[in-house]
Design goal:
The complex is a heterodimer of chains A (about 400) and B (about 325).
Chain A lengths: L7 H8 L1 H14 L16 E14 L2 E7 L3 E4 L3 E5 L6 H9 L6 E9 L2 E2 L5 H7 L4 E4 L13 H10 L6 H14 L5 H4 L9 H12 L6 E5 L7 H18 L2 E6 L2 H7 L2 E6 L2 E7 H6 L4 H8 L40 H5 L5 E2 L11 E2 L4 H6 L17
Parallel strand pairs in A: 4-9, 4-10, 7-8, 8-9
Antiparallel strand pairs in A: 1-2, 1-3, 1-5, 5-6, 10-11, 11-13, 12-13
Helix pairs in contact in A: 1-2, 5-6, 5-8, 6-8, 8-9
Chain B lengths: L1 H7 L5 H19 L5 H4 L9 H9 L3 H23 L30 H37 L1 H16 L2 H12 L6 H11 L2 H14 L3 H8 L4 H9 L4 H24 L11 H8 L8 H28 L9
């Protein structure tokens, strides 16, 4: 079934808005921080990564490509922020910008602060000190992100030795320890294996072990499970959870798999054409999506709890070209609800009603966000019909 | 593990049951073996083969490569041994002039009474010395320049590659003729000759390594090590270079053969090793006039020259195959 029903809580809050709003404020009075799903507020969460008005342009022969057009988010210690979106929506570019790994042709504007330290424009020499120890990254394809000529143990030890003044023996011992933590069986033997002797899931776990080797405070995972099959994904996600609890790191999880988001994320940021189009807690996004694009994403997922047979709903058309400037909402050409206003002005993020008791946390960039959030949005995309509405 | 297997196989054919028993048996064996680790018992450890071992294993599975290696090693060792233990030194002048091969002089003697066997082996030794020096020099210079150009790209790359072009367009032979003649005037100055050849023959390695680095730097694991905070130097030396070692070694081997040919050419032209020093090229030069009358003066140096170069090419081919698992039909 493709239809996404608002959860019972959502329905309830929709019926009695005033009451639930009041309750929400009441709940917030005691806490200084917005609540997150895992209830991390007890540790007194603070923002380790603050991204403000981040814009990334690429100059190409055809013109300027606006890969990221203004994105803001805060990542608290121990929090998991999921960024979802189609290919080309700017997810990976955001991550690479954070690591300072974008090619030189990229123009980065705005601010990325890691613990008060501005990373945008920081010299390579200083960035090297932040990478690995402060912010580390897990890449998409474990087949290629490990060096084929070295043993797994060497590569983990190498990551440790690059930043810490420890003996090789200690680094090696820590490698074994890390492999055990991410759930590799017989780590004492496996540490001597080469990447080609590992399966895809084991390699990705080894990559996670490398990423947590220097106890980073932020881990960026760029589609960590995309290259793996579904059964292995679960194991890798478990390893990732272990890594988070071991290091206490915050996770920026980039994926287009909403299942992964549902299982792991606290906050979700939906990106489309280089901009966030909906931001909120994971409950907000799944139970009260307020932007047609989010609804389309959710509707295109098969559900295990579906009754009977129903066709998946697809979002017609293709993502817009990110080349050059554009007028109006970027999703308008594909949006069944699009009006004239959508084609003329691009909506900003506006606060919409939240399922959880954290007002202001749920925002959507849609002229009709309030109506969409309230409406019977499961039906806005037709069943399996490909409408040719590409602009 | 064994238990569940047996349960599953209860209703299977006798063959399958036998298989299960065999499996359980080996499992028990493995458990009994004290020296075996826990992972071995589950068949999960296996033997880790490093890239070097895989390459060596593939190399030694090729008959021609082994022939080449043995020939080259035999020539090298023999040339040193002959220099020390043979009854004649290559500089010894005897009264036995222009004699054909005999028991005392297996390769005969030349017009001034030198023993040709000692001369040829001394030539082989000199050629190998020169060639190895050239290969080491050319590889060091070429790898450094190629790696820096390929990794940093941009203006560094442009500058270095224009420099390579410059060295390439220098007519090597002309330069060698000018320089070699000055440097090798003193007899036996093989090192000077080797350095000149080395300085001029690194360009190919540089281009090769640059091309390799250009593709390697886009690989995810390089990005990953940068994301982990490795410095440029660390990435180049520790992460990328080991991945480019195959073509570098193959090329170094071929450089050995090519520099022997170059040295021979120079010596043949009378610009390389000067008498009383000896090299194969010099011997060929000295023997060519009498090739039809005193054939041993010409045939033996040429023969050894060909065998020497051929053996190195065989090694090079073997290494190329061994480093390229896609090309090789030999399984390790």
């Amino acid at each position: 079934m493709a239809e996404v029903e608002p959860g019972p809580e959502a329905a309830e809050s929709a019926e009695s808005e005033v009451e639930s709003d009041g309750a929400a404020h009441g709940a917030l009075d005691g806490a200084t921080e917005p609540e997150t799903k895992t209830g991390d507020e007890t540790t007194g969460s603070r923002a380790v990564l603050i991204v403000e008005r981040l814009e990334v342009d690429f100059g190409t022969k055809e013109g300027v490509v606006h890969a990221v057009r203004g994105i803001d988010f805060e990542l608290q210690t121990g929090e998991v922020l999921g960024i979802v979106g189609e290919s080309g929506s700017g997810k990976s570019v955001t991550a690479l910008a954070t690591m300072g790994l974008l090619p030189k042709s990229a123009v980065v504007r705005g601010s990325i602060k890691f613990k008060e330290r501005e990373l945008v424009g920081l010299k390579e020499k200083h960035l090297t000190g932040v990478r690995g120890t402060g912010v580390s990254m897990i890449f998409q394809d474990p087949m290629t992100s490990l060096n084929p000529v070295y043993t797994i143990g060497w590569q983990i030890a190498e990551a440790i030795l690059a930043h810490q003044e420890v003996s090789k023996e200690d680094a090696w011992k820590r490698s074994v320890e890390l492999l055990r933590k991410v759930g590799i069986p017989f780590p004492e033997e496996r540490v001597n294996n080469y990447p080609h002797e590992f399966s895809g899931g084991m390699r990705q776990r080894a990559v996670i072990a490398i990423a947590m080797a220097n106890d980073p405070e932020v881990i960026l995972a760029d589609e960590p499970t995309t290259a793996l099959d579904v059964t292995v994904q679960a194991q890798v996600l478990d390893s990732l959870k272990t890594a988070l609890s071991e290091t206490g790191a915050a996770l920026l999880l980039i994926t287009h798999d909403l299942g992964v988001i549902a299982g792991l994320a606290d906050q979700v940021l939906v990106m489309y054409a280089g901009r966030p189009v909906e931001v909120g807690t994971v409950e907000d996004i799944f139970y009260r999506p307020s932007m047609p694009y989010t609804i389309g994403l959710l509707g295109s997922l098969p559900r295990l709890d579906a009754e009977g047979r129903e066709r998946l709903r697809q979002i017609p058309g293709a993502p817009p070209s990110i080349l050059g400037d554009r007028v109006g909402c970027p999703f308008a050409p594909r949006c069944p609800l699009a009006q004239d206003v959508c084609r003329e002005t691009e909506p900003d993020l506006q606060v919409v009603e939240s399922v959880t008791s954290a007002p202001g946390q749920h925002q959507a960039a849609c002229h009709f966000a309030v109506e969409v959030g309230r409406g019977d949005h499961g039906k806005i995309f037709s069943d399996g019909v490909v409408d040719n509405v590409i602009a | 593990m064994a238990d569940t297997q047996q349960e599953n196989f209860v209703i299977q054919t006798p063959a399958a049951v036998a298989q299960t028993e065999a499996g359980a048996h080996t499992l028990a064996d493995a458990r009994a073996g004290v020296e075996l680790s826990a992972a071995d018992a589950y068949g999960m450890a296996g033997e880790s083969k490093s890239q070097a071992r895989l390459v060596l294993s593939r190399f030694f599975h090729q008959r021609l490569a082994i022939v080449g290696l043995c020939t080259f090693a035999a020539l090298g060792i023999a040339s040193v041994l002959v220099g020390h233990f043979w009854q004649f030194s290559y500089t010894d002048i005897t009264n036995n002039l222009n004699s054909p091969p005999s028991a005392t002089n297996p390769f005969g003697t030349n017009a001034i009474g030198n023993d040709m066997f000692a001369q040829v082996m001394a030539g082989v030794e000199k050629d190998i010395q020169i060639a190895l020096t050239v290969a080491v020099m050319a590889t060091l210079i070429g790898v450094t320049i190629g790696a820096i150009a390929g990794y940093y790209r941009g203006w560094i790359d442009s500058a270095l590659m224009r420099f390579v072009d410059l060295v390439l367009v220098i007519p090597v032979l002309a330069i060698l003729i000018v320089l070699a003649h000055r440097l090798t005037k003193q007899s036996d100055n093989w090192l000077g000759l080797a350095i000149i050849i080395g300085i001029l023959s690194w360009t190919y390695v540089a281009r090769l390594v640059r091309a390799d680095f250009l593709s390697l730097r886009e690989r995810d694991f390089v990005e990953a090590s940068r994301a982990l905070g490795a410095s440029n130097k660390r990435i180049i030396v520790k992460h990328m270079l080991p991945n480019a070692v195959g073509p570098i070694i193959v090329n170094a081997t071929l450089t050995v053969a090519l520099s022997i040919i170059l040295e021979t050419t120079l010596s043949y032209l009378g610009l390389g090793v000067q008498p009383p020093g000896v090299s194969l090229g010099l011997l060929v030069n000295q023997g060519q006039d009498s090739a039809t009358t005193e054939w041993w003066l010409f045939v033996f140096p040429v023969m050894f020259l060909i065998v020497l170069i051929l053996s190195i090419f065989l090694i090079g081919d073997g290494l190329r195959e061994a480093f390229d698992p896609k090309k090789s039909r030999v399984r390790a």
